[in-house]
Structure formats: structure tokens, C-alpha cells
What does this fold into?
Amino acid sequence: MPIPMPPTTLSCPKCGWSKTVVPQSDVLLEGHTWFTVCPECGHSKLDRKKASGLSSFIANVQQSFELWQKKPNR
It folds into this structure.
């Protein structure tokens, strides 16, 4: 059975950009739940670390809100 990745904080050592992602499944979407390059400066070597509890919670709320905004109104 596939297991989702744990919440991860990605950061760029070059420009300081950072984002915490909380994958809801084992599927990682480039530019949404995973980044291989910095979206701000294009640097390809991002730092990755386990997200703290608070940053995981905040990222989870943000991702849920983004999904809610994208749902069509019926």
C-alpha cells in the first residue's frame, strides 16, 4: 500500500524561498506538492527537511483552502 510522504519544508539556499508541503497521497505534483527547482530564482539544489508540527498544520490548511477555491460552484 502506498504511503504519503511526510510533511516536508523545501527551501532555496540562494534566494531564501521556502514552502512546506503536505502530500495527501503518494502522488507528488511538480509545482504543487513537490518542487525540484526554486520557483523564484530557478536554483536546482533545494534544501529539504522534516516540517515542524505548526508549519505542517498551516500548510495543510493552505492546501485545503486552495482546493476549496478551485472547486466549481454548483
Observations:
- Residues 53-70 form the longest helix (18 residues).
- The mean pLDDT is 85.
